[in-house]
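Fold it.
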Amino acid sequence: MLRIKPQDLPAHPMALQLSVVLALAVSMISLLVSYSVGGALARSVAALGLTAAFLHLMLQLQNRRARFNQAFCAICGSSVVIYLVALPLLPYMAPDADGNFDGLVIALVLLLDGWSLIVLAHIFQHTFDIAFGRGIAMALLLMFLTLLVFSLFAGPELIAGD
């Protein structure tokens, strides 16, 4: 996944539309374990919209708006792959009768979160022509902003569940 740069992807709007639809669908499916259809849709659209807004703003600030389609396509496409890998773990994310979580499942989910962070940093690195460390910082900033926005505007139930 880290061999392909965003600029290697097709810039055609159809590629972007397909990747957005797939990302939205896979995100919703993964959230249906914990949320209603409406809640899963709202969370998926909000997260995707916030990511698009963040990317657009950063590109605007650097006068690189032409890179949006390929970069957002890369973000959506990579999220589809990561969600698909995570889907089999989701049913095991709930605590057992004693309130304990499966340590192996939690470790695997944290590993996927780390992979997601690295992939997003890679995309930012090549989209903005910056060092990988700055890409990590941007990815962490986006993750933090997403959690902040969800908690401020939707309340803890948007993060914790319906």
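The chain has six helices and no strands.
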